[in-house]
Design a protein that fits this description.
Elements (H helix, E strand, L loop, with lengths): L11 H10 L9 E2 L10 E2 L8 E2 L2 H15 L3 H4 L9 H11 L6 E4 L2 H12 L8 E5 L4 H13 L4 H4 E4 L10 H11 L3 E7 L11 H10 L3 E5 L11 H4 L3 E5 L12 E5 L20 H4 L22 H17 L1 H22 L4 E3 L12 E5 L4 H9 L2 E2 L1 E3 L3 E4 L8 H16 L1
Parallel strand pairs: 2-13, 5-6, 5-7, 7-8, 8-9
Antiparallel strand pairs: 1-3, 4-10, 9-10, 11-12, 12-15, 14-15
Helix pairs in contact: 1-15, 2-12, 4-12, 5-6, 13-15
Length: 427
């Protein structure tokens, strides 16, 4: 579905005209682009795997290195942003991106660690209600995590894991099929745990409808936003899942293997009876350093923290979130729809039967990624892109994932990518 506000044209001149009118065009200069042997920028369309480095990251990390060098342990209390409270300096900007209240989000640990911590609290199986619903082609780490949690509680994944899967011959999931699953198994389901945007197809699931469906049948509901955060409107507080988790190194550009994020809805904020794995950093700050008190959880998502936060990695997250705050997430999402719409238009213009876009056509059912299936292709197609100066992503057996990140990609990037695609197909 082409953006109805734009009549796209298949020309470099049109792409350059769009870039000239783009209110976010200056943000491209805030990022480092990989370069080829001749010093030319690669066209980087792989933010769905690892985002580019913001140029301000070095400054933010250096500042904390300087604090460490000059005041040592006193940095916990006397740094410009005391390290004991550093995570709070990220909360508002992170909350704005995921549509939450600051007390509902926390930057901590890494993605799958946070998923396990959330399932400790929100997967509480009983002999009657012990099943987990997940999409059949979820990211492997999510599948591994839910299976291991099921086994940890003494149940068999063959019986307690329900897969929401596409219909025969299709790639996308139908909400009606999830409804049918819950109608049949609802009183046995303890947790609905889905990626909100599928890593392979790029399909964005209707989070509000899924949350309401799960809660209607008495299940807890959680989402993995790894391929959605910084890319789609999650609106977590109003959507209302019990929890969500995400990484920050894809569209949020915080660096390889960087910290994850976590959302816990405020209805759980003061529930001290909820099961959780605990650590001292989740204890209320006011009495944390007493050291001899029973665990007293901090309010909201802060109460799920375990250990001292890694300040240097957190500084990189903060640096990127500052760029997002300056751009404004609504502006980023608006550009994203136009940019991916232009990519879709240009791919369709190639008019080659070997190409099939398996990502939904409706912009409201996807983020910025398009998954392009190329019949009879293999990884040599991806290698051809690299040789042509374009970095995207190959997924077996025959899909190229292309993700124009709106905060640093532009319309000319998208145009040039499709020119190379046409050339590779002709060859």
């Amino acid at each position: 579905m082409q953006d109805t506000q734009i009549l796209y044209q298949n020309s470099l001149a049109f792409a350059k005209a769009c870039d000239a009118q783009d209110p976010l065009r200056s943000f491209r200069e805030k990022f480092h682009f990989p370069k080829d042997a001749d010093g030319n920028n690669y066209i980087y369309l792989c933010g769905n795997s690892l985002g580019l480095q913001p140029k301000n990251v070095q400054e933010f990390i250096q500042k904390e290195l300087d604090h460490w060098a000059k005041i040592g342990v006193e940095g916990h209390f006397k740094a410009d942003i005391p390290w004991t409270e550093y995570h709070r300096a990220l909360s508002k900007n992170m909350a704005d991106i995921v549509g939450a209240k600051p007390d509902e989000v926390i930057i901590m640990n890494t993605l799958t660690t946070n998923l396990h911590l959330m399932m400790v609290s929100f997967y509480r199986p009983t002999p009657k209600r012990n099943k987990i619903v997940i999409e059949s082609d979820a990211f492997p780490s999510d599948i591994y995590a839910v299976k291991s949690q099921i086994k940890h509680h003494g149940y068999d994944p063959e019986e307690s894991l329900i897969l929401w899967q596409p219909r025969e011959g299709e790639y996308l999931n139908h909400y009606e099929d999830l409804e049918a699953i819950m109608e049949q198994h609802g009183d046995e389901v303890a947790l609905v745990m889905l990626g909100n945007t599928n890593y392979y197809t790029g399909q964005k699931y209707p989070m509000k409808k899924i949350t309401d469906l799960g809660h209607k049948h008495g299940a807890m509901v959680g989402f993995d936003l790894a391929h959605g955060v910084g890319n789609i409107d999650a609106d977590l507080h109003e959507t209302g899942p019990d929890f969500a988790v995400w990484c920050t190194y894809k569209y949020l550009n915080s660096g390889p293997g960087s910290l994850g994020g976590c959302f816990v809805h405020e209805r759980h904020a003061e529930n001290k009876e909820i099961q959780r794995f605990t650590g001292w950093w989740g204890h209320k700050l006011e009495t944390r350093f007493n050291m001899r008190l029973d665990f007293d959880p901090a309010y909201g998502a802060d109460g799920w923290q375990l250990s001292n936060p890694p300040i240097l990695s957190m500084a990189a997250v903060r640096a990127s979130l500052e760029v997002f705050a300056e751009a404004g997430f609504k502006n980023i999402r608006k550009k994203s729809k136009k940019l991916t719409g232009f990519l879709e238009f240009l791919i369709n213009e190639i008019n080659d039967d070997r190409i099939n876009i398996i990502t939904p056509k409706n912009p409201e059912e996807r983020g910025c990624q398009l998954s392009i299936q190329v019949k009879d292709a293999d990884k040599s197609m991806f290698d051809g892109f690299m040789e042509a100066g374009i970095i995207c992503d190959w997924r077996e057996p025959d899909v190229i994932r292309v993700a124009p990140a709106p905060i640093y990609n532009n319309f000319e990037d998208v145009y040039e990518m499709t020119v190379r695609l046409r050339e590779l197909l002709n060859n």
